[in-house]
Structures are given as C-alpha cells and as structure tokens.
Design brief:
Length: 182
C-alpha cells in the first residue's frame, strides 16, 4: 500500500490538509497527518484544531512514498523553518519520490532549491518565492516528482493529481466521480 504524509504546522490551511487526506484515504492510500507542532493537536489558520495521526519521526517518514505540505500562514513559514523536514524533503527529491505543496507551501520547495529548472504554481502574488522555478498560473502543476497547487480552491484537483501519481489515473477518475467533482 502506498503511503503519503501530510505535515501540519500551527497555522496550516485547513482545506489544503483535510481534502487531500480524505481523498487519498478514499483511494486506498495510507495517508496520515504528521504534526510538527510537538503535540498531536494542531490548530489551523482559521482556528480549527485537528488531531494528527503521529508526531514527526524521521525514520517513519522515510518509508513514505509522498510528502505533502499544506499552505496557510504562518504554517508555511513554520514548515520552511523546520530543518528536519527540509532534510527529508531534499532526500525525497533526490530519490525521485513525490514532493508536493499547495498554496503558500511551494515557497518551502523554492527555499530548498528543489524547484530549480521546474515549473510550479503558488498562491497568487507569491511567485517570487518559487526560487529557480518557472511560475505557472495553473490550479495544479506536476513537473516530474513535484506537484504544486495554487490555493484552497485547488484542493480537490490537487488531491486528485496526488491520487493519480500514487494510484494511477483510473483510480483518480473513480474518486472524482464518487465525489461528483466536475
């Protein structure tokens, strides 16, 4: 079974975390919330507190097939400031594993140099944070093992792209139909 980890830092954008988690699980992917906050309870940017499945553990995280960063502020900045997460993202990128981010969070990938020579999208007005990338104004952009999304309104197409990458387009299309997403 494929594994995906969604990293939560205080101030994350709720829609961009919950939507991928829900849809990945519907697709039969072992998706989990990972807290970087030091406690399993993590509060999003709109005051909704979620219970993570686990605290950050480097060895467990290395077994995943995909890492996902939801946006939101100040959550994205906290993700960027986390050195252990940065090392893990770089390791995944080097190994060709999936590294994914939505809304403001692609700035973390830009900061780490992961986007050099790639196309990527980010929340409008933050394109200068995509260091080394060619910014595109698409809801979702996949360039090799990197998948980026533009903002909360792109949460469903972002999640469907993640499913397609891990479980195939047929599974993504089935989930799309199941949730009646046109």
């Amino acid at each position: 079974m494929k594994k995906a980890l969604i990293f939560l830092a205080e101030g994350f954008e709720e829609m961009e975390a919950v939507t991928p988690l829900d849809l990945l699980r519907r697709a039969g992917i072992d998706a989990k919330f990972v807290s970087l906050a030091g406690t399993l309870a993590v509060t999003g940017s709109h005051g909704i507190t979620y219970q993570a499945d686990m605290l950050f553990d480097q060895s467990v995280a290395e077994e995943a097939d995909m890492l996902i960063l939801p946006g939101g502020m100040p959550g994205s900045q906290y993700l960027q400031d986390n050195e252990a997460l940065g090392k893990l993202l770089l390791k995944f990128h080097t190994e060709g594993k999936f590294v994914c981010a939505i809304c403001a969070a692609p700035m973390v990938l830009g900061h780490l140099g992961i986007l050099r020579g790639k196309k990527a999208t980010i929340y409008p007005g933050m394109e200068d944070r995509l260091t080394g990338a060619t910014p595109v104004a698409e809801k979702v952009c996949r360039d090799g093992n990197i998948i980026t999304g533009r903002g909360p309104g792109a949460a469903v197409p972002f999640a469907l792209t993640l499913i397609g990458a891990l479980a195939g387009q047929e599974t993504a299309d089935k989930i799309k139909g199941d949730i009646v997403f046109d």
